[in-house]
Specification:
Layout lengths: L15 H4 L14 H17 L6 H20 L3 H28 L4 H30 L2 H28 L10 H14 L4 H25 L10
Helix pairs in contact: 2-4, 3-4, 3-5, 4-5, 4-7, 5-6, 6-8, 7-8
């Protein structure tokens, strides 16, 4: 999440705490913060290795995007070993997606363009991966109900993501350019279901997250209507 321009000379030593100064989704229970306990620690190893190089955060954003598309393609093949590889690629993409922002903050390269580049490519990856999962399972089962479940899963997942950003716009939250931590949890669930060999669990799990996330965010927003201080006057 950064600008592609030449980076200013970074500090001599990588500062982990500075690199993770980021909003945490209040809708996620503390013990489910995959971003904090899994992705960031692993991503920090990547950032440490690249900190003194000429690699830019935006380049990591594109790399995360490429890994996500590779995951989607692998899922769409509908083979057992392909599902396993796809789950690992999806998690690798999620970790790289954390590394770009961490590198940007560590080097002082954070920018609005970089943040929204990340958002644009993330949403494309979300759609591609869930579509790949749906068609991959359908290829194996031939059950048309899988297509219906996939449609509902994609719809509810992207809906709750959209409501997240609408809420940020309404409240004037400064974190509007950051990704929802729910994505990290969803991708980790994709990895787990891929590893245990139950790809259908991906659709059930992400559907449940999307449905509950939509309901929670809707109720939360409606409650803000009773609080005149919930959003700044424009």
């Amino acid at each position: 999440m950064t600008q592609p321009d030449a980076a200013p000379e970074p500090a001599a030593k990588f500062d982990y705490r500075k690199s993770v100064q980021k909003f945490e989704d209040k809708y996620i229970f503390p013990f489910l913060r995959i971003d904090k306990y899994v992705n960031r620690p692993v991503a920090s190893l990547i950032v440490r290795a690249l900190y003194r190089t000429g690699v830019t955060p935006n380049q990591l954003t594109y790399m995360a995007f490429a890994l996500g598309l590779a995951s989607a393609y692998s899922f769409s093949r509908g083979r057992a070993h392909a599902f396993l590889v796809a789950g690992i690629l999806a998690q690798a993409s999620s970790i790289m997606d954390n590394a770009d922002g961490m590198l940007a903050r560590a080097k002082g390269l954070s920018s609005r363009y970089g943040a929204f580049l990340d958002l644009f490519l993330d949403r494309i990856c979300d759609f591609a991966v869930l579509t790949g999962v749906t068609f991959g399972i359908y290829r194996v089962s031939g059950d048309p109900r899988v297509l219906k479940l996939g449609l509902l899963t994609i719809g509810f997942y992207l809906l709750q993501v959209g409501l997240y950003y609408l809420n940020n716009i309404y409240t004037g939250a400064a974190s509007n350019g950051e990704g929802a931590e729910a994505k990290n949890l969803a991708v980790f669930a994709i990895l787990v279901f891929s590893l245990v060999g139950w790809p259908l669990g991906i659709l059930f799990g992400v559907f449940a997250m999307g449905f509950l996330g939509t309901a929670i965010k809707l109720v939360s927003f409606l409650r803000k209507g009773k609080d005149p201080q919930a959003a700044p006057v424009r």
